[in-house]
Amino acid sequence: MSDARQLLGIKGGSETTNIWKLRLQLMKPITWIPLLWGVICGAAASGHFKWNFYYVLASFACMVMSGPMLTGYTQTINDYFDREIDAINEPNRPIPSGAISLLQVKLQILLLLIAGLAIAYGLDIWAQHKTPTLFFLALGGSFVSYIYSAPPLKLKQNGWLGNYALGASYIALPWWAGQALFGQLTWTTSLLTLAYSLSGLGIAVINDFKSVEGDKELGLQSLPVVFGIKNASRISAAMINIFQLAMVLVLILIGQKFASVILILLIIPQITFQDMWLLRDPLEFDVKYQASAQPFLILGMLVTALAIGHSSLIT
Fold this sequence. Notes:
It is built from 14 helices and no strands. By secondary structure, it is mainly α. The chain has one domain: Orthogonal Bundle (Farnesyl Diphosphate Synthase), CATH 1.10.600. Helix 12 runs parallel beside helix 14. It is globular. The chain starts with a helix and ends in a 6-residue tail after the last helix.
């Protein structure tokens, strides 16, 4: 079990000297899942996805770009700039433990970025885009990832701004990529997904609980540091719930009432698990909460995306 945690990039995994396992650990495969799902949601929201070989292959390539390549880049560069914090919070991580050299980490960052941008440009060619939309989305997302982790901006030093940047990267960007690949990305859906990303802000707060001690020592203003563990868990739950409920209202307004009912039914178990795990002891139960509640969150995203794809008022 600890070996699996190590490969997925989850805290508490075992240590290894295998260079490829170390590289995979830096890329944190567990974090790819929301991005892969976001691409599916974007494809559904486009209203133009077709179940044929070429469309499925293009969607798979978009998932590889969003997950292993660019999220892998994001996670690796975050570990590179967080090596001092990780030396306090997770000293067995590949970089602070000395298991992998900084030169190898830098090469990994560069190769993942180039590969992600190359796939994005190739998808633009396949989709016959006059403007390389996916390339610009990948480039913009990569830039946000850089300033999130790297000084002097280091957005993660500000709990609100950093967590929103993270939430938007996990929800809005892959959605936009999937929708632009198979259809037309509109301002309306862009703004809706940015609003939906405020739910992602709530999810991002959960990732800060494991780093409280290191954040305090190095002066990072994460929400658990600023507001305390209990209050931060309440903020997290409120952000997750409020902006999903806002999407319920949007679905009602665009005439997708059945989808709005399904979304409400998916929010109820999330609130239940918040009471069981998140609000009770987020330090102890953060992984259990995410494992139990997030499937309902991402299913709700898909329901919303399908409803948008079938609504003439938005598309």
